[in-house]
Sequence to fold (520 residues):
Amino acid sequence: MSIAIDHTVRTKVAELLNSLCEGLYEREESVKLALLSAVAGESIFLLGPPGVGKSLIARRLKYAFKDGVSFEYLMSKFSTPDEIFGPVSIKKLKEEDKYERLTERYLPGANIVFLDEIWKAGPAIQNALLTILNEKIYRNGGEDMQVNIRGIITASNELPPGNSSLDPIWDRFLIRLEVGNIRQFRNFLDMITDTRDVYEDGIDEALKLTEKELQDWSARIDEVELPAEVLNTIQVVKIGMETYNARPNNADKLITVHDRRWKKIVRLLRTAAFLNGRTQVDLMDCFLMVHCLWGKPSQVDIIREIVTEAIRRHGYTMAVNLQMAKREVSDFEEDVDQEIKVRHTVTEEQLMPTEDEYYELLKEDDRFEGTLIRIKQFQKLQMDEAEAVNFYDQQFNLVNRLKAQKGSRQFTVDVFYNSERYTYPLRTRKAERTQVIFKKPHPIVEKHWDERLQRLNAYLSQQLEKIQAHAPNELNHLDENLFVDAEWSEVVRANLREVSEALQNLKLRLEKVQYGYGNV
Fold:
């Protein structure tokens, strides 16, 4: 199965991202996710202290769009709707008795919006923002106004208060990302000594995204396929979160994700695949879910673990229905085993160990001291070839050292003492053993097995061929995902590798079954 790559789209987006990130240090992920959310028509929330470049990301992002208009505002508890959505038109109010705002240079008239300290917005602003975030509609007076906002970036150094009226807005921010200070010292030095104007528009006009281009892309994004391994991974992640929530000790730290967010996540994955030039979402794209599912920073590691585990263990495993195949092969093995093997229980004598280390001589005389011999030493003895052997008393003390060899009768030992040979039996016990007798199956049964084996083999070969044909194309671009760090590619490779090996092992087990009933 081959995945077509649109190199034109991918090349343009890659070059655009490089230009947007130029002069920035350790902000590449933020810029990339901001562009991704804007193309997807979604919003992003940046959590971090003042002075870490949150507003810079928004200002840079507007340069990605041709004729892009940005609106930026620092919220406070005194902010009014006039400051965000525009002042009321006095002319309209006087001449037409219409309450209508002049929105051209305000939020409704912008393409890229940055709202800092978003949680300080008052109720009137919150209500209008909800409609814009949900439906891209602003109610201006008595009319609904379709806004052309591509991306809304919001920021704060804190999360919304728990159980507050801000929860509906918080839920609308699809991507959530923590932004901190620069960590690497080399990057820190480069940043403070760099004299470039980071607010300057240095994007080549040919790289900027036009409205027509974005509309065309939107239609093509909806056509991006979601293969079985991706749908299965999403399902496993959802189950993993429900399992986490069901644990009693997590009752006060639930991870809540509603259906609408899942639908938006799928749209985001499709957008990521498209911008990477693909017509299918892949497992690498699924790592983007980590940025969409947490509600508190403390949940990020938990979400990352759930997503990683889902991809690592279940990605291609469920896509090829590996568990079903394993059950089918196991059932076949069991059916053949029950038919060709007749089991009988037989009772036999076995040596009886003492303390798992010694065998006991059954002596009726007291010629020499010692009744215990080490199991390991007895096992090394040969018939007609005497060796020096240690003998122990019942308290496991070494009390004698004499020549000895295995006796001619089973479970006996010959001991040489004063130039004489004495034969002693070892203590034994009765034990049951299952004896297996093989019988040839009836020709009709064997024919049925041949058909069953052929059917199973064909399924395994088909799945293996699908995986192996899919793998080269899949693996070629794992390290080149524009929005996911290449380090996660090994998780995808591991799952792909293990599924291929598991299918090969199942085929080998079928060969052994066939050899078993065919050579009785």
